[in-house]
Design goal:
heterodimer, A: alpha+beta, Beta-Lactamase, five-stranded antiparallel sheet, five-stranded mixed sheet, 12 strands, 57% helix, rod-shaped, B: alpha/beta, five-stranded parallel sheet, 5 helices
C-alpha cells in the first residue's frame, strides 16, 4: 500500500497547498485593502475632528480662554481612539490639553512653510496637527494623537478570521482529496495491487476491478485486463502445445519400446528357430550321404553338396544379420582412441586375407578421436579387408589410409587401386546384403559396409565412397571431432 | 564294466530332428553310455525326480544332462535352475546344447551355474565333432563328482 499512500498523500498535499496559498493571498489582499480603507477613514475622522476643534477654539484663543479651549477639547472624549489632544498658541505655549490616559504632553509640531495640516504615524499612534486660523491669520495649533489599538484589534480579528477560514478550507480540501483519492488513486492502487498479485502468484486469471469512472483509468484497467487475458490465452495454448508434445513423446516412446522389444523377440527367435532347420538340412544331407552315398551317381552327390553349401551360406547370412541387428542396439561407450593404433591392430587382424600377396601400404599419421574402440575396430577391419579383397586381381596392390581434419569432424579414408565400382550404384554400397559384384567373383555376404555405416552413424558420423570401374575405390567415414587433435 | 554300469546321459530336446542328429552323432562316436531322452523340460524334471511317467524307472547315476534352451512347457533355463538349486542334483554336470548365440542366454545360463554352453553348429561335420567332444569329455574323460546317497532314492515327489 506504499504507492497508494504516496499518490493519495501527494494529491492531498497538493490540494491543501493550493487552497492554503489561495486563501492566504486572498486574506492578505483583503487585510491590506481593509487596513488601507480603515486608515484613510481614520485620517479623515481625525482631520475632521482637528478642523472642528480648530474652528471651535478660535474664540477661546482670541479671548485667551484656556478653560473654554479645554472644554472644546473635552468634546473629543466621544471619539474612542483619541487619547490626547492639545492646543498651542502660535508662540509655542501649551494653551489647553486633553488626555484620556494621562500620557506625557506632545511637543509642538513644526509645520513646513505654507502647510496648514500635518499627518504622522508611528507604530502605535496616528498624529494630526492643524493650524488654527482666524480670518486667515494663524492663532494657534491643535494636535491630536489617536492610538491605533482599534486598527490592531481589527487586524487581529481579521487574521483570526483568515486563520479560521484557512483551517476550515484545509479541512474541506482534505475531505475533497479523500474523495478524489477514492476516484483516482483508489483505482490506480487496485490496478497496482492486481499487478503485484499477478507477478507474485503467476496467476494470469486475476483481473483488476473497475473502480473509477475517469476515462484514463477505465482505459488503463481495460488495457491491463486485456493484456492479462492475452497472456492467459497464450499461456493456455503454450501449455496445451506442451501437453500435446509430451503426450506425443510418451506415445512415440511407448511405440519405440514396443518395436524394440518386438525386434528383440524377433532376433531372438531368428537366432534360435531359423538355425535349427538349417542344421537339420545339413545334418540329414550328411546322414543321407553316409547311408546311401555309395548308390549315388556324380550328379546326385553334387546336388547334396549344393544343399549343404546353400544351408551353410544361409546360416552365415543369419549370423551376419543378427550381428548387424545387435550392432544397432549396442551402447556406444566413447573414449579417446588413437586411430593410428587402431589401424595397426586392424592390419594385424586382416593379415591372413593378404595371403602372401604383394601389397604396398601407405598409412599416414592419423589423429585421436572420441569413439567406442570395440565398435570402431570392426569398421577399420572391414574397410581394410574390403580393400585387400577388391585388389586381389591386381599384381601390384596399393592401399592408402589417411585422414583430414575438417571443420568439426575428422574424415578417414581407405583408398585402393582395386576393381573399383560404378558410381551409379554408389548409393547401394552401404545397404544390407547389397553387392556390386557376383558372389563367384568376390566372396562375402554384403553386410560389412552396412555394419560400417551403422557404426559410424551411431557415432554421429557419415560414410560415403568414390570410385570408378577398374580405377580403384576410396571409402570415407567421418567422426564428429569434439577436441580431435591432429 | 558293461554298458549297463556306465552312468547315463539325459538329453532334453523337443526337436526330433535335432534329437536324431545328436543320437546319430553319439552313436557314430561309439559313446557307450545309455542315453535317456526327455522331449521337453517338464519330462526332464519328471525323469530327474522319478515321477510321472518315470516313477517306476530305476535310479541311475547321470554322467551328463544335455539341455536345449527353448522347449515347450518348461524351458531349459528353468530345468537348469531347478537342478542347480537342488542339493541332491546340483553336482550333476549340465551342458546347454542350443541354437542360441544370444548373450542374454549365455549370461543367464552361467548365472544359474551351467557347466558348459555349446552352440549347435549348423554344419553337420562341426556338429558331429561338437557332440563327439562333449561325449568324450563328460562321459569318459571327466571324473564325476561322488554321488550323494540321496540322489539314488528316486521317490522324491
Amino acid at each position: 500500500m506504499q504507492r497508494h499512500g504516496s499518490i493519495s498523500r501527494r494529491l492531498t498535499w497538493m490540494n491543501m497547498l493550493v487552497s492554503g496559498i489561495a486563501l492566504l493571498i486572498a486574506g492578505v489582499a483583503f487585510a491590506a485593502y481593509d487596513l488601507a480603507t480603515f486608515r484613510s477613514a481614520m485620517v479623515r475622522d481625525l482631520s475632521t475632528e482637528a478642523s472642528m476643534v480648530a474652528s471651535n477654539s478660535v474664540a477661546a484663543l482670541l479671548f485667551n480662554d484656556s478653560h473654554a479651549a479645554e472644554e472644546t477639547l473635552g468634546a473629543l472624549r466621544a471619539s474612542a481612539s483619541v487619547v490626547r489632544a492639545q492646543i498651542y498658541t502660535t508662540d509655542g505655549r501649551l494653551f489647553a490639553a486633553y488626555s484620556r490616559d494621562g500620557s506625557a504632553p506632545l511637543p509642538m509640531p513644526q509645520f513646513a512653510p505654507g502647510a496648514t495640516e500635518m499627518l504622522a504615524f508611528d507604530a502605535s499612534s496616528a498624529y494630526v496637527a492643524r493650524v488654527i486660523t482666524s480670518d486667515g491669520a494663524p492663532v494657534g495649533i491643535v494636535r491630536i494623537r489617536a492610538d491605533l489599538q482599534a486598527m490592531y484589534v481589527r487586524l487581529g480579528r481579521f487574521a483570526l478570521i483568515v486563520a479560521a477560514v484557512l483551517v476550515l478550507s484545509l479541512a474541506g480540501a482534505l475531505l475533497v482529496s479523500r474523495v478524489s483519492q477514492r476516484a483516482i488513486s483508489g483505482p490506480l492502487a487496485a490496478v497496482a495491487a492486481s499487478a503485484r498479485q499477478v507477478s507474485q502468484a503467476k496467476d494470469y486469471g486475476i483481473r483488476a476491478p473497475h473502480v473509477g469512472t475517469a476515462y484514463e483509468l477505465t482505459v488503463l484497467v481495460d488495457s491491463f485486463n486485456e493484456m492479462l487475458a492475452e497472456i492467459q490465452a497464450r499461456d493456455r495454448s503454450l501449455q496445451q502445445a506442451h501437453d500435446q508434445l509430451e503426450a506425443r513423446v510418451r506415445e512415440r516412446t511407448e511405440e519405440l519400446h514396443a518395436i524394440n522389444s518386438e525386434l528383440e523377440a524377433f532376433t531372438y527367435s531368428v537366432s534360435h528357430d531359423l538355425r535349427a532347420p538349417l542344421r537339420h538340412i545339413t545334418g540329414f544331407a550328411s546322414l543321407l550321404e553316409q547311408e546311401a552315398g555309395a548308390a549315388f551317381n556324380e550328379q546326385a552327390r553334387r546336388h547334396l553338396t549344393t544343399i549343404t553349401g546353400a544351408a551353410s551360406r544361409m546360416a552365415t547370412l543369419i549370423d551376419d544379420l543378427l550381428a548387424f541387428s545387435r550392432m544397432g542396439r549396442a551402447t556406444v561407450t566413447k573414449r579417446r582412441v588413437d586411430l593410428s593404433q587402431l589401424v595397426r591392430e586392424a592390419r594385424g587382424e586382416v593379415w591372413t586375407d593378404v595371403d602372401g600377396r604383394r601389397i604396398t601400404w601407405e598409412v599416414h599419421e592419423l589423429p585421436h578421436v572420441d569413439a567406442d574402440p570395440s565398435l570402431l575396430r570392426p569398421v577399420m577391419v572391414n574397410l581394410l579387408s574390403n580393400a585387400i579383397k577388391y585388389t586381389s586381381t591386381r599384381d601390384e596392390a596399393r592401399i592408402e589410409v589417411g585422414s583430414e581434419v575438417r571443420q568439426g569432424e575428422v574424415v578417414v579414408f581407405v583408398r585402393d587401386n582395386g576393381v573399383g565400382f560404378d558410381m551409379a550404384y554408389a548409393h547401394k554400397l552401404f545397404g544390407v546384403f547389397q553387392r556390386l559384384h557376383r558372389a563367384d567373383e568376390f566372396g562375402g555376404t554384403g553386410i560389412g559396409l552396412a555394419n560400417v555405416r551403422r557404426i559410424v552413424q551411431r557415432h554421429g558420423g557419415r560414410t560415403w565412397a568414390e570410385g570408378a570401374v577398374g580405377a580403384g575405390a576410396t571409402f570415407y567415414f567421418s567422426l564428429p571431432s569434439q577436441g580431435a587433435a591432429a | 564294466m558293461t554298458a549297463a554300469d556306465l552312468p547315463h546321459i539325459l538329453i532334453a530336446e523337443d526337436s526330433n530332428n535335432d534329437l536324431e542328429l545328436t543320437l546319430a552323432a553319439l552313436r557314430s562316436h561309439r559313446v557307450a553310455n545309455e542315453v535317456d531322452v526327455a522331449h521337453d523340460g517338464a519330462e526332464a524334471l519328471d525323469y530327474l525326480y522319478r515321477r510321472g511317467a518315470y516313477a517306476q524307472l530305476a535310479p541311475a547315476p547321470l554322467a551328463l544332462v544335455l539341455l536345449d534352451l527353448k522347449m515347450p512347457k518348461v524351458d531349459g533355463l528353468e530345468v537348469l535352475r531347478q537342478i542347480k538349486s537342488d542339493p541332491a542334483l546340483r553336482l550333476t554336470p549340465v551342458v546347454m546344447l542350443t541354437s542360441s548365440r544370444e548373450e542374454i542366454d549365455l549370461v543367464r545360463s552361467y548365472e544359474l551355474g551351467v557347466n558348459a554352453y555349446v552352440v549347435k553348429p549348423v554344419a553337420f561335420g562341426q556338429f558331429m565333432e561338437a557332440v563327439k567332444q562333449l561325449g568324450a569329455f563328460w562321459a569318459v574323460l571327466n571324473e564325476r563328482p561322488p554321488m550323494p546317497a540321496a540322489s539314488s532314492g528316486g521317490n522324491r515327489a
